[in-house]
């Protein structure tokens, strides 16, 4: 019987045998190659990729500048461990990120491997700087799957399961969501209540949030909310940490999403699209805060790997030389327009969300009740894949379909994707 299986079927059978079920794979596919906004599975089937490695491939799969930079670095140093000896790509990348995030202010940067590592180390830095224990995070947030990352994440399923007890000192408050009746004023009032009833502000080391919640449903923090948090943090000596892991590098209307609100955070965490597919993360922050941990307090064997640093430098070069930020904003505007047109035809799309090229549709049972419909969202995702388009879900209730196309996606590819999505919505009965 095994000889009659397709290559995909054989590989998925091996996956079931050798890989634990806890590692969820959204699509029953095994990919063999990729280029730009397209991927091909082991049986030669082509798909438009509007997931991009979950927001990793902003410059597109196998961008030639990134490939060339990694190939060149392979002939020099692949790994030395920055804790043993420094190397130029690490230093060059740190200087570039300090300029991009600091915008003229003295900033410093340290590199790690994963987004969760960046978040955890940002918390360590904030606690070291303030000598305080408390962290304010938000419901619906996603900050990683490590113990502290899971604690900071503001969703119970699927991330917390039976993994506790969790880390101490973390307090969650509501995040603005106008569609669900949570205004900026209500969210700020809840923060005041948290200060009054759970932890006094002088015991809080950091306020941590995503300027656009990723896994929580692509909810954008209103500019006035970010501005209010900046003022509150300054007033109480609290470190303001913005998690730009999914929203950074041109995805949400600016190089970093917080820049559209005109604020400057104390610390910024980055990963995902920083290196065009290679694993690297970063914490950039005000120099006086970054200097709080003493030597040996920060680091990691693979943090700031030379290959990943070279790839990240190439990614920044792409943004500079190919006008990728403007291209991404134009793509996001066209995608949002197309989604709005589909929403007009399909009443079970409760809301279209678009922040730059970070777009989503929330699926509901009916527009009056706005009751979340996770089954419909999954049906749309499955039908889209059958038509050749890859998307995934998000949201606390898992009823939001999100779109993260590479910023190099062409208009023709976008038009094709919208046609595929329209067919999927019809098939799913939206």
UniProtKB/TrEMBL annotation:
Keywords: Aminotransferase, Pyridoxal phosphate, Transferase. It comes from the Bacteria. GO terms for biological process: gamma-aminobutyric acid metabolic process. SUPFAM superfamilies: PLP-dependent transferases. Belongs to the class-III pyridoxal-phosphate-dependent aminotransferase family. One of its GO terms (molecular function) is 4-aminobutyrate:2-oxoglutarate transaminase activity. InterPro entries: 4NH2But_aminotransferase_bac (IPR004632), Aminotrans_3 (IPR005814), Aminotrans_3_PPA_site (IPR049704), Class-III_PLP-dep_AT (IPR050103), PyrdxlP-dep_Trfase (IPR015424), PyrdxlP-dep_Trfase_major (IPR015421), PyrdxlP-dep_Trfase_small (IPR015422). Pfam families: Aminotran_3. This is 4-aminobutyrate transaminase. Gene3D superfamilies: Aspartate Aminotransferase, domain 1, Type I PLP-dependent aspartate aminotransferase-like (Major domain). Its cofactor is pyridoxal 5'-phosphate. The keyword DNA repair does not apply. It comes from Teichococcus deserti.
């Amino acid at each position: 019987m095994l000889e009659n299986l397709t290559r995909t079927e054989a590989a998925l059978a091996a996956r079931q045998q050798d890989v634990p079920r806890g590692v969820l794979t959204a699509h029953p596919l095994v990919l063999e190659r990729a280029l730009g906004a397209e991927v091909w599975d082991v049986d030669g089937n082509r798909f438009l990729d509007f997931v991009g490695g979950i927001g990793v491939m902003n410059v597109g799969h196998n961008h030639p500048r990134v490939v060339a930079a990694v190939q060149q670095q392979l002939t020099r140093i692949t790994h030395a461990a920055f804790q043993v000896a420094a190397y130029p790509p690490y230093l060059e990348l740190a200087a570039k990120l300090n300029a991009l995030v600091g915008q003229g202010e003295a900033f410093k940067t340290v590199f790690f491997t994963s987004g969760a590592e960046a978040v955890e180390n940002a918390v360590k830095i904030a606690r070291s700087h303030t000598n305080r224990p408390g962290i304010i995070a938000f419901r619906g947030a996603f900050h990683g799957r490590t113990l502290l990352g899971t604690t900071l994440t503001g969703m119970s399923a699927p991330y917390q399961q039976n993994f506790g007890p969790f880390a101490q000192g973390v307090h969650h408050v509501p995040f603005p969501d106008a569609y669900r009746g949570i205004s900026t004023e209500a969210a700020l009032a809840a923060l005041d209540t948290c200060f009054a009833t759970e932890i006094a502000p002088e015991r809080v080391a950091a306020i941590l949030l995503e300027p656009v919640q990723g896994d929580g449903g692509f909810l954008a923090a209103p500019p006035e909310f970010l501005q209010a948090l900046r003022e509150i943090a300054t007033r109480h000596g609290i470190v303001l940490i913005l998690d730009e892991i999914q929203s950074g590098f041109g995805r949400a209307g600016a190089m970093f999403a917080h820049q559209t609100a005109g604020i400057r955070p104390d610390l910024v965490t980055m990963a995902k699209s920083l290196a065009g597919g290679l694993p690297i993360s970063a914490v950039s922050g005000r120099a006086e805060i970054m200097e709080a941990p003493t030597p040996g307090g920060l680091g990691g064997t693979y943090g700031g790997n030379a290959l990943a640093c070279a790839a990240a430098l190439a990614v920044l070069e792409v943004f500079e030389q190919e006008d990728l930020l403007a291209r991404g904003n134009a793509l996001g505007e066209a995608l949002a327009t197309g989604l709005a047109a589909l929403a007009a035809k399909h009443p079970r799309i409760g809301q279209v969300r678009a922040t730059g090229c970070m777009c989503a549709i929330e699926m509901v049972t009916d527009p009056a009740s706005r009751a979340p419909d996770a089954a419909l969202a999954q049906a749309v995702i499955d039908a889209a894949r059958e038509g050749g388009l890859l998307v995934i879900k998000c949201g606390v209730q898992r009823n939001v379909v999100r779109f993260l196309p590479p910023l190099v996606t062409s208009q023709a590819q976008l038009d094709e994707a919208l046609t595929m999505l329209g067919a999927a919505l019809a098939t799913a009965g939206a």
